[in-house]
Amino acid sequence: MDKEHEVLLNAFVIAKKRYRVFYNAGILVWEDESSKKAKTTVPITDVLSVSVSKLPHANGKQWMKRSKAAAPPPPHPPAAAIVRNEAHGSLDSDRIPVLSGSTTTNTLATTSSNIPHNHSNRGSLNDLSDDDRREASDYLDAGTIQAGDSKYLILHYAALVCQKTNRWRVRAVALHNSEPRLVELWYNRLSSDLRDQNRPKHLLLFLNPYGGKKNALALYERYAKPLFRLAGVDINLIITQRAQQIYDIVTSKSILLDNYDGLVCCGGDGTFAELFNGLVTRTMMDCGIDIKHPAYLPKPNIPIGVIPAGSTDTVACCLNGTTDIKTCIIHIILGQHSGLDISAVYSADAAAKGDEGASPAGTGRPRPQLLKLFASALSYGYLGDIAYDSEKYRWMGPKRYDYSGFKKFLANRGYNAEIVVHLDRRGKQDPNDGVRCLDKCARCRKAQYGRDCGGERASYEDADTEPLVVRGKFLMVSGANISCSCERSPQGFSPYCHLGDGLLDLVLVRHTSMFNNLRLLLTMTSKTKKLSELPFVEIYRTKEFRFTANGQSETNGSEIAPAISSEMMRRSKWNCDGEVLLDTNIIVESNCQLIQVFRRGILPAGTAGNGGIDQRAAATNPADDKESCCFGLCN
């Protein structure tokens, strides 16, 4: 019988209660025989792992308490009792047992010219202690279990435990049946369907130990390593030692990207930017495209992911709706990915000599020099000054941004500039339309459909646009590729900016009084107020714009007094995904869904799960959700 039409229906015991368990077409359901209200539905797309066990514990043995002391743990640490509700256990990733020495970490030295070899995170049985060997035989090496030995089917699956904060956690359930033949039948069927999910099994992971609070390695060891091991994902871990090392490794011909199902970074927005800049450059090199003056930007065929461990983690927040590290790891493991716009920054000085006022896309000639790619925001003025000034205070850690920000706030500098924005003459691109980018976003799907059909610019041709010239003195000019929301700025620059529509939002903040600057900062940190509500802020939705510093066209060739000239000729720097960009006159163009990123869409309010499936648990203990999600503060 075809697997799609095959139905499994048996009775299992869960926590000393009989449950009717049903599986068909990728949907697993278990409900209490005595009460149909105690029902849980889990799609196979949310299942992380399935195994069989001799023991009634969710992992083949009781959880081992993690030692919080710096000293090595005793030879035989006491086991902690499992805490589970009446239907199934709650699995927190920091309590997943990890075999001692199970992951080999590759550290790539700054002076090394060789790419390290791939290492598995599963370890060898020769490296295990006696206790670990027993666990491996009871739980991990399920395929070697003799028939008749195992009566427990163990499932680990992902559950959305708090929709308001978009946090996911791993749950575990142990199903008991006295007939090992039935347990083996269920295990074989679920394992087969899991293998069909096309999930990543080999990942190249770059870890930046110096970003944010400098705790990326500790976060990886505590959260990422156990979860990847639980899902059977092999990790080749490279700990970077200097800036631009990720870029150098990815663009190196000595590393074969085809050996991996995805590239992942553990760090902040700058680490993520370094990764996709290197990946796109590597793709251009493989396609024989000039990386300095590319005729077009090719789309890489390998997805990338980010594990947040930086200062703000704007990209992770916009992709997953949260900076919760466990949630981001779960999304990478589940393997679903979607397109993300990437904006390219070109030098406008060379372009102005040949085609004044023309865009790189419209000339038909090769584009000018490519300076950088960015995924979150490109900012000139206030934020650019902060990035440039904060480099002198790296010893302060993340606090350097607060210190530099306070200094630049008091300075209240404005910068003269001219911006040419290409707007949709039909008026369909409104940055304040109130439509957020959520799961199965119609706007992003439409943009992707046009790209796949060869009509990348079909919905936004140059003939449908008209240039708008904006001149003046600005406190800040920002091109937002995504909403740029984060914990510090819940609404971000533009809350209705989409991840994959091929457009970016240009935010212009006019230079004004110190009082209005204070209003700006308070609005950026507000959970409800938006920048578009301020009278001195303008937002335009466009595919590209050209920026020229100092507003030279305003002078009309007349001579300027020395004092005024000094004021007008003052220039700032660009803050490009946290990195300082020294070129001032630039052209910025958005590339629709240039890269694929591991993520699951942010669910709209009032929905319970993917596909409308109420996976999240009539049988789940609400108190446990509060503990594992946000301690009840999000209710």
Automatic annotation (TrEMBL):
Cited Pfam families: CERK_C, DAGK_cat
GO cellular component: membrane
Region ranges (Disordered): 102-130
GO molecular function list: ceramide kinase activity
Composition bias, Low complexity: 102-114
Superkingdom of the source species: Eukaryota
Gene Ontology BP, a term: ceramide metabolic process
Domain DAGKc, residue spans: 198-349
Biased composition regions of type Polar residues, renumbered to the chain: 115-127
The protein's name: DAGKc domain-containing protein
Source organism per UniProt: Anopheles merus
